[in-house]
Design a protein that fits this description.
mainly beta, SH3 type barrels, OB fold (Dihydrolipoamide Acetyltransferase, E2P), five-stranded antiparallel sheet, flat
Length: about 190
């Protein structure tokens, strides 16, 4: 059976395909038609196994091999040593997974958080955490008078998940913060 190939006109954000022996997902793409020369597609890709992000240019019409990427909903239950205990939300089976398999975002895991297991033919290639999480500050130096938000200065704050992020001086213990798990950046304080 011949494999069904796709080309650059079939690109969709989130699409998975095989390239150089690895499975990649398409984060973003832009079709470019220069005045001279052939059209091309500028892309940002993420290698599912490692989370590595790559910028690549494809010639317009270039063929790729799409992959059916199954997204299985899992729930993070708790950490146990170097493992995260996840539960498959369909079968309720509990599965231990090495923390490092969850990538850099693992430091933002919160109990009961829903994450996605990315699988091809029942082989787990990686995990997707929510892009944004809300976590409580458990440790930070008190804000000092005179240090305003506009100063641009920051201080470290330890979050309930164990991660440490840089935050503005007005953030205090007990504040709940919205964090971008992809960059590890503080976005805003959440009103409670």
């Amino acid at each position: 059976m011949e494999k069904e190939l796709a080309d650059t006109s079939d690109f969709k954000t989130g699409m998975a395909f095989q390239m150089d022996g690895d499975i990649w997902t398409l984060l973003e793409f832009q079709h470019v038609k220069p005045g001279k020369g052939g059209a091309f597609v500028r892309t940002r890709l993420r290698k599912i196994r490692t989370g590595q992000v790559l910028e690549k240019t494809f010639r317009s019409g270039e063929k790729i091999e799409p992959v059916f990427l199954e997204k299985v909903k899992m729930q993070f239950l708790y950490k146990q040593g170097s493992e995260a205990i996840l539960m498959d939300l369909d079968s309720y089976e509990q599965i231990p997974v090495e923390m490092k398999a969850l990538g850099d975002q693992a430091e933002f895991l919160k109990e009961d958080m829903e994450i996605i297991s990315l699988q091809v033919k029942e082989e787990v290639l990686g995990y997707e955490l929510p892009n944004f999480v809300e976590l409580e500050v458990v440790e930070t130096d008190p804000g000092e008078r005179g240090n305003t938000v506009s100063g641009g200065a920051t201080k470290p704050a330890k979050l309930e998940s164990g991660a440490t992020v840089q935050v503005p001086f007005h953030i205090n213990i007990g504040d709940v913060l919205k964090i971008d798990t992809r960059s590890g950046e503080y976005l805003e304080r959440v009103k409670r």
